Amino acid sequence: MSQLDEKQLSQLIEAALFIADTPLTINQLKQTVLETYGIGSVQIRSVLLQLELDYRERGIVLVKSGGAYQFQSREDLSQPLSALWPQKAPKFSRALLETLALIAYRQPITRGEIEQVRGVAIGAAIIRTLTERGWVTVVGHKELPGRPALYATTEQFLQYFCLQSLADLPALDDEQALAAMFNRAPADSDPHVH
User: Fold this and answer.
1) In this structure, are 100 and 178 located in the same domain?
2) What CATH number should be reported for the domain holding residue 17?
3) Are 192 and 71 contacting, i.e. CB atoms less than 8 angstroms apart?
4) Which of the residues in the chain have pLDDT under 50?
């Protein structure tokens, strides 16, 4: 294929998103499967919007999260489909979830500030787990003695918790919405996400 017509472009983007291990951004599509075709971002975005519409009423939907696109099963089908994957979502400690929530809502934030809000020390394992999962990263250092690291969430955090942006975080006083957000996160090897 030296040139792609509209149908071929749509098919190629659809196939790339379906087989990719992780969500893909428009730039990733441009720099990989579409690199030799010189397809622009506007045209790719147009195809993605059409694919979103085409899949809207199907069992599989195209979702955008954190600036990247992926196919996944409809959220309302999760319960009946859960029988197909025996592995459950990992359980995280209350301390880890509280730390993650503080970083998400008050970023950038230092470890000391997190400990001050929580009223207890944070084990190094909590910060290590959050960084190893790619949910938080060091974004700078505070101008204080010792120059403590400032932590913030990442695009991977948004994708994992099915958020478009930080503006989609539930209100802090809405405990049910917060619990639902943490419970709707997919398991690491959840096959309903392609």
Assistant:
1) yes
2) 1.10.10.10
3) no
4) 1, 186-194
